[in-house]
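Batch job 17 of 40 flagged for manual review because the log was empty.
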Amino acid sequence: MISGSVSKMYSDEERDFVSSNVSSKCPIVEDPRIHLISYTKRYTDVARLIRLKFIAQVCPKLRVEALELAINHVKTTYNVKMYEELYKALSIEMQRGGRVSEVASSSSRETSPRCSTSKPMNSTSNKALPYDAYWVEDNTMEATLLLQELDAELNFKKSNSGNAYVRRILEEIGDYHVKSGNLQLAVKFYARARPYCTSSDNVINMFRNLIRVSIYMANWWHVLSYIDEAKQYASGFQNLNREVPARLSCAAGLANIGLKIYKTAAHCFLLTPFDRYDYDKIVAPQDVAYYAGLCGLATLELEMLELGCLNSETFKPFFSLSHKMWELLANFVGGNLDTCVKLLHDIEGYVRLDVYLAPHVDALYGKIMARIHDMRHANRLVREQSSSLMSELEVNAKNTNFYTDNNV
């Protein structure tokens, strides 16, 4: 941590809300550097909910807005349990905000009696979203009926149709469980589709479904296991042997970050092709630049940073969407270390709001700052040696002149 944009301390109310293993290990962010609505539009489905929930947990300034956006989005799913959880958190936060406004208003009246008729602070922002009991009841009924319909259709297709129809229904049931928040069941039904796959594309799509849900669950070893299985399968097909590893490299990088294997993560991200990138629903292209850049700065040699990041034609388009990360890398390679420290400070309020990167910011920043310290020390030694050499040359030159003059 190199700036004052974060704090390690949670209030009692925040500690009650911050319950997940990931967010409880992250400091709260005091100075967020994102426009929340634009930020969340990059993601869809469960990925958007995961990110909004995380931001609500670690950033008090954006908590109400993030919870409201998450509540509106969760109503496009069947996840009633998450709706209840988010609404409860929003209600608590609104009550807490109301108490703060009352205290501030009371204090203002005491210090300025003439202003006692003014409106309470943030009065317009303390109107909570109404609890949608109709949606809860209607959605629960619709979800139950849909699952019954899918189960009946699956039994019918198994008895009367070919493999392709059974696979499609199993995938639909998996999709249903993802939208319901039952990720373990989703994995189960996606995996059951394997015997019913009728083409290599079907098999790869099954692995991608398993990888996607495992990312949602942060089961990083499972992600790597499914990636290895997909690569082994693809190796038997000439058209898939090169395509599949590249398409899965972003997921591999994400898993390696989660497992704190930062150097491997950097290499995986740098192998991600921009023109065939299709993990944008979970990880936006801008995120790939930050993940690769910070992991690379922490672990890769200068030559690799220059060749693999700055001069890579396949990866450079990612940096075109993340200019500060590009500047940071260019200044690091160029030896402009003070500028690097400033840029690290500038992006800290952004990267600490990324659910996959935030738990590793302290470790990555620590490694980067250690490298900057070592480079400064090396530069100082070079300057001292250069200065000593110049002094020695000057002394030798004077001695030479002295002996020359005496001989004359």
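Reviewer: the log was empty due to a logging misconfiguration, but the result itself is present. Residues 253 and 333 are 23 Å apart (CA to CA). Unflagging and moving on to job 18.
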